[in-house]
């Protein structure tokens, strides 16, 4: 039974509560909702104002809880499922609330939250679909890159990259099981293939390094055996051959390779150091020999021009003997010194040849005989020419005239040769 409004003043809560509740004569407090009144409690020893204020405070607490839930839902502090559970729980509390206030308004606000949560769920679902699509693309990229690495031979950076790809894979969300498993099989197979090939490569590399170590140990022994050789040219050639074999042997394990190389280089440096010292000593000797030959050239070049062949030959022979005894000279001086010596020798020989030609009786006799034969031949041809001309045989006369002209030219040359002997 309703109580007259004059009997139910406003509760001291800062807002009117009469529209939402009343207090009966026996102290029972009722709340008004869209579905009608229902009792929420009884306070027989309190005034109506105190009773309404007490249950209005409960309403305020419930309204605060609804407001807090709205804030958390809208800020997405709660996931859709957790938020739905919380709304359901608060809505149940509102339905059975022992409080006085606009409970229908709270219930409506909670219904609005349900719509908000539904929208959030759809957005989250769409966002997850996008993430999964991106993850699918990323996992396909990872699998493809791993397959490319697995087929390559980048044994150092490839291994590092495979580890990076694995971490990238772990950071991505799982896809639909069948698709995720298929992509993982591609990635895992590529990693396994690469790892197997990499192990095989390094196994072969280790085997080759062991072979290289054995080969280089033999080369070091040979190099060290040659260090005391003074057969400079052939031994230098042997060292060049050993160096070619060293390069062809490949790399041994690093620590061993460095140690063997130090031994090989020490042996090589020892030999070539000794050779350089010997060359330096030889260069000094050859330089001194060149100075001796310079002095001998001064003596020899004084013989030119030759006035007395016999004396010049004797003097030059003595100089030549001392020249040979002087020994070798630096390679760059050899051509100049030998050339100057040859000029003197040729000058003496040229004068000697001229004298021989002028005093050779056999040669003079041959020259005189040639002159006599040509004079006789010319005289005979002149007689024939005159006879042909007298007979009117111009052709024969012309042939004889040409023959006479040729022989007269030969005779002039032969006469000059004969005059050289006089």
Keyphrases for this structure?
422 residues, mainly alpha, 5 domains, three-stranded antiparallel β-sheet, 3 strands, rod-shaped, disordered N terminus
3D structure, described in words:
The chain has 422 residues and is mainly alpha-helical. It folds into five domains: 5-124; 128-205, no CATH class; 207-281, no CATH class; 283-359, no CATH class; 361-419. 77% of the residues lie in helices and 4% in strands. The chain contains eleven helices and three strands. It has helices at 48-74, 80-95, 103-151, 157-170, 177-225, 232-249, 254-301, 309-326, 331-359, 361-390, 394-419, and strands at 21-23, 28-33, 36-42. The chain has a three-stranded antiparallel β-sheet with strand order 1-2-3. Helix 3 (103-151) packs antiparallel against helix 4. It is rod-shaped and about 195 Å long. The chain starts with 20 loop residues before the first strand and ends with a helix.
């Amino acid at each position: 039974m309703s109580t007259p409004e004059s009997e139910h003043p406003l509760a001291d809560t800062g807002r009117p509560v009469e529209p939402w509740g009343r207090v009966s004569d026996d102290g029972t407090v009722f709340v008004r909702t869209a579905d009608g009144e229902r009792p929420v409690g009884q306070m027989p020893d309190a005034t109506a104002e105190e009773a309404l204020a007490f249950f209005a405070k409960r309403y305020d607490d419930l309204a605060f809880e609804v407001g807090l839930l709205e804030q958390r839902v809208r800020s997405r502090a709660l996931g859709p499922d957790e938020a739905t559970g919380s709304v359901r729980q608060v809505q149940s509390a509102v339905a059975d609330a022992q409080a006085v206030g606009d409970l229908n308004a709270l219930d409506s606000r909670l219904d609005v939250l349900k719509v908000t949560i539904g929208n959030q769920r759809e957005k989250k679902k769409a966002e997850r679909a996008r993430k999964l699509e991106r993850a699918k693309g990323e996992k396909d990229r990872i699998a493809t890159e791993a397959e490319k690495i697995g087929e390559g031979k980048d044994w150092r950076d490839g291994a590092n990259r495979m580890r990076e790809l694995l971490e990238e894979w772990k950071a991505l969300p799982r896809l639909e099981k069948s698709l995720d498993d298929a992509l993982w099989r591609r990635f895992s197979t590529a990693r396994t293939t690469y790892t197997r090939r990499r192990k095989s490569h390094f196994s072969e590399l280790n085997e080759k390094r062991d072979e290289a170590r054995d080969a280089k140990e033999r080369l070091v022994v040979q190099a060290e055996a040659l260090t005391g050789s003074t057969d400079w040219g052939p031994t230098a050639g042997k060292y060049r051959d050993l160096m070619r074999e060293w390069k062809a042997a490949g790399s041994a394990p690093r620590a061993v390779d460095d140690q063997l190389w130090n031994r090989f280089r020490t042996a090589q440096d020892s030999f070539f150091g000794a050779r350089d010292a010997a060359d330096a000593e030889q260069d000094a000797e050859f330089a001194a020999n060149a100075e001796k030959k310079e002095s001998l050239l001064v003596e020899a070049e004084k013989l030119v021009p030759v006035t007395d062949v016999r004396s010049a030959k004797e003097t030059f022979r003595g100089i030549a003997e001392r020249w040979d005894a002087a020994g070798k000279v630096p390679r760059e001086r050899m051509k100049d010194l030998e050339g100057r010596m040859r000029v003197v020798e040729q000058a003496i020989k040229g004068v000697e040849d001229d004298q021989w030609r002028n005093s050779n009786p056999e040669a003079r006799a041959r020259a005189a005989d040639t002159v006599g034969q040509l004079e006789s031949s010319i005289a005979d041809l002149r007689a024939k020419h005159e006879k042909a001309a007298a007979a009117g045989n111009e052709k024969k006369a012309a042939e004889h005239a040409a023959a006479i002209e040729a022989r007269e030219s030969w005779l002039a040359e032969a006469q000059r040769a004969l005059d050289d002997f006089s």
